[in-house]
Design a protein that fits this description.
It contains seven helices and eleven strands. It has 214 residues and is an alpha/beta fold.
Length: 214
Amino acid sequence: MKIYAFHAPLPKAIFPIHDQLIELWAQTWSEAGWEPVLLGMPHAAEHPDFERFSKIVMQYPTVNPEGFDYVCWARWLAYERAGAGFISDYDCLNLGWPPPAERPTESCTYAFNIPYFEGANSLIHLKQEDLQRFLVRMETEPNQLFYRHVNGRDQVSDMVFFNHMARKGNLSIAPRMVQHSYETPIHCPVIHLTPTSGNPAEKLALAHSILKRA
């Protein structure tokens, strides 16, 4: 069964480190029995709505480096073109979660962390028709529901969007399979690398440390 991730280099990204993180993502998911597939911006650009969607989401407020949130929004176009299905961030390591015997019959998140509501889209299963509806809502409903305020600044985030979808019942909440790396002890088979700094080098070091202990 395929598991998709997405990566598009940003101008100041540290390419070798990101490449190594992606290799570890592919390695751990493959060893657990999945077929990892990495998508990129060329796949998103194949979507017939790419130009219109891009113009809309590029206007959303952000607190992140230039281009970061745009890439986060654009990746959902690539996933829709691929047919959707199982999707993870490329900094999610699989420590032993095999593919399910049968594909889920509904869209669901495996990462929704009550009460924190963090990262509902870091490990997710989406039916293609549901993702198509979500893409429309991403364009038409970036109102206060999907805003968050960070140090007095506004941000419209795809993570907040999917958290909202889960809270409102538009995305089912499956048994949690993913935890953040700062949570201890490790009790989930998928680890989302989330160092306090978000620095790629720190993520890579953290990944090697976790894999040594696994």
